[in-house]
Amino acid sequence: xxxxxxxxxxxxxxxxxxxxxxxxxxxxxxxxxxxxxxxxxxxxxxxxxxxxxxxxxxxxxxxxxxxxxxxxxxxxxxxxxxxxxxxxxxxxxxxxxxxxxxxxxxxxxxxxxxxxxx
Amino acid sequence: xxxxxxxxxxxxxxxxxxxxxxxxxxxxxxxxxxxxxxxxxxxxxxxxxxxxxxxxxxxxxxxxxxxxxxxxxxxxxxxxxxxxxxxxxxxxxxxxxxxxxxxxxxxxxxx
Lengths: 118, 111
Fold this sequence. Notes:
Largest sheet of chain B: 6 strands, mixed
Oligomer: heterodimer
Strand content of chain B: over 45%
Helix content of chain B: under 10%
Largest sheet of chain A: 7 strands, mixed
Order of helices and strands of chain A: EEEEEEEEEEE
Number of strands of chain A: 11
Helix content of chain A: under 10%
Number of helices of chain A: 0
Distance between the termini of chain B: 41 Å
Largest interface: A-B, 26 and 22 residues
Structural class of chain A: mainly beta
Radius of gyration of chain B: 13 Å
């Protein structure tokens, strides 16, 4: 149980285009989903936290107009990279958890999406 | 604010040797501690976690970690590593719902 999928696993796009990445919790309802970004040989940096039905909370320094996050249902969150540029190339990982705010609930991670912007 | 320090960016070790990956944290409140493993181009897999109770935590794949509150450490150990343990290992702290990761330690196991 507790499987999180991401689609696509890899995407290559041209500079200036937009790319959408999906994150799905396959066997549980995710009240909260997280989006991380990982540069080569570096750690995961939290970009934003999204709760189902409400606006995402972005970390300092993350452009909310560039990285659009939608958490429309308890099993799906999407990250759209708008007007992508080569510096947006990275490994994007989502995670999901269920349960009430403030209590510990394990985050389950997706397999990641490799974005390459040419 | 919470932070995690993994002092070793890379740890080379021979197969069947013991290994310890170090992790220190700082936090102003009680924390939950985690170790994750990441294989190339994959997401993170939870190895083990400390929430409360016994300070020695056993995880998957023969790994274990010990929570030391006085030293604010949560070092990961395995008595005998395999080639397949070659991967990136991340220590993380949660207060309680947001995870903060260390920079990672690459474990390189050679024959």
